[in-house]
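=== RUN LOG ===
request id: a7f3
mode: sequence -> structure
chains: 1
length: 111
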Amino acid sequence: MIGKQLRQLRKERKMIQEQLAAILNMAKSTVSQYENNINEPDLTTLVKLADIFEVSTDYLLGRSTVRRIEAVEVVKPKNVAYLGESIEKLSDNEAEYLRESLGVYRKVRDK
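=== RESULT ===
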């Protein structure tokens, strides 16, 4: 249910329901229904709302308290690209990175 998050975000922007409805090209009553958890937006509208308020869809859905995850550049150790190489050739940091990466992969794969 997105009601609480949507109302909070709209008020933070000092926006009234009519303004949000106009941006979304819908009736004010539809926005009111979203905020009061009477109706839920379809996926297209959910993504538009996330874009408007610059938050993640998970935040809107109440699945996360993190508003937006910024893109993070991951710098991979050069030797990790060559998995055929001997593990002994990896530095301690590279070996740790490889262990962590494989651990995350296993957790995701096993779900």
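=== NOTES ===
The chain has two domains: 3-60, 78-110.
The chain is about 55% helix and 0% strand.
=== END ===
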